[in-house]
Amino acid sequence: MKSHIFALSAFALALAIPNSLAQTTALENSAFNTEPTPMHANNSPSAAAFVSRPPVPRAATQSYHPFSAIGFATRVGLGGTGFDVATPLAIRFNLRAGGDFFNYATTFQEQGANVGVNLHLRSGHAALDWFPFGGHFRVSPQLVFGNNNRVLATAVIPSGSTVTLNGQDYISSYTDPLHGSGRIDFNKVSPGLSFGFGNIIPRDRRRVSFPVELGFYYVGQPGLQVAFTGSACDPNYAPSVGCESVNQDSGFQQSLAAFISRNDNNLSYASFFPSSR
């Protein structure tokens, strides 16, 4: 009987030793393994629970540097029609350049004189678009260069018609009528500032935008030039003795100089030229 009990005890001990060794080895391995075991959905308490990373905005992942993107826009404003080309410098800065073009001509009669006016607008510009709040509002310091904006005018005073300069009346000669010409010029390079909404290079997935801009640039004191050719007659004398070429008539030249000076001062309001689109 004792031998049977001893045999059964030995058999049970033989089965228990391998299992205990296996558990001891597993505990030692887990103790020395310092890397965390990745968690899977199947190992979590609930199979429906999982962890996901929120989507990263496109603007935060995309790199913005010069010529990483190019934007093109057409524009219509007070300076005429034109275009803009832009490239990003940073997440909140664009470099933009373009040009504006406009022509307008008309004729009319003023105090019997036939007057023709030609408005000629040609200019280029470069701007730094800054989006201070990261949205669509922007502030844009700019530089207008190659400014060929000017106003040209011509006047033909018919024979016998009267023209007044600085309060003095002159009659256009019957044999050599008066012809006048004038022009207004502006500085070639002018600083400016504008405010607007919209981005030619959107920081989101849009591909089309409609920017709006309003500002001004400082063109300085415009320069007025006026000249006359022909002969002018003094109304206090007979035409046969009271007419003289304006180039030789000192009284006419003095009246013309005073007229230019007065109207040149009146043009000081045009030192700031509007810029919009």
Write the layout of secondary structure elements.
Elements: H1 2-32, H2 58-61, E1 71-77, E2 80-90, E3 93-110, E4 113-130, E5 137-145, E6 150-157, E7 162-165, E8 168-172, E9 178-185, E10 190-197, E11 212-218, E12 223-229, E13 231-233, H3 239-242, E14 243-245, H4 250-266, E15 272-276
Antiparallel strand pairs: 1-2, 2-3, 3-4, 4-5, 4-6, 5-10, 6-9, 7-8, 8-13, 9-12, 10-11, 11-15, 13-14
List keywords for this structure.
eleven-stranded antiparallel beta sheet; four-stranded antiparallel beta sheet; alpha+beta; 277 residues; 15 strands; single chain; Porin
Short overview:
The protein is 20% helix and 44% strand. With 277 residues, the chain is α+β, with helices and mostly antiparallel strands. The protein has a single domain (66-276), classed as Beta Barrel (Porin), CATH 2.40.160.170.
